[in-house]
Amino acid sequence: MFSCAEGRSKAHFQPRPEHQGYAGISHGGVLAALLDEAMVYAAVTLGRWVTTAELTVRYLRPAPTGQPFFVAGEVVRHQRQMVVCKAEIRGGDGELLAFATGKLLQSRELREDEQPGRTQSGTGTL
Fold first, then answer.
1. Which residue segments constitute the domains of the chain, with CATH numbers given?
2. C-alpha to C-alpha distance for 49 and 64, rounded to whole angstroms
3. CA distance from start to end of the chain
4. What is the phi-psi region of residue 24: left when phi exceeds 0, alpha when psi lies from -120 to 50, beta otherwise?
5. How far is CA 70 from the centre of its chain?
6. Do residues 4 and 11 touch, judged by C-beta distance below 8 A?
7. Rounded to two decimals, what is the model's pTM?
8. For residue 17, which phi and psi values (nearest 5 degrees)?
9. pLDDT 10s digits, 67-125
């Protein structure tokens, strides 16, 4: 579950065995998806749906399965049709495991029933 407000998002995630690439190590695609979602949740707090146009991921350390980590996203810059964001994944000990930057294109305004609340369902249940 992601919580999001005012251009920021955050979630805790504990990868399970089905999230691994190599034995005991989370698959990089799962990490990329979490980083992308963190940026999307941060960006939609601005009031519009977004679509990821560009995603750059940097992996620093293996992310073990079975150990929780923290995902956070933040809006860096908001232009007319584009939102630039960053996101990171940290291990339970606070060590930076991966980070990303992204460019997200804005589309239609969110309806009242689509507005992000304090908690939104999302990739926390991958």
1. 3-114 (3.10.129.10)
2. 32
3. 10
4. left
5. 10
6. no
7. 0.88
8. -55, -35
9. 999 999 999 999 989 999 999 999 999 999 999 999 999 999 888 887 776 344 444 43
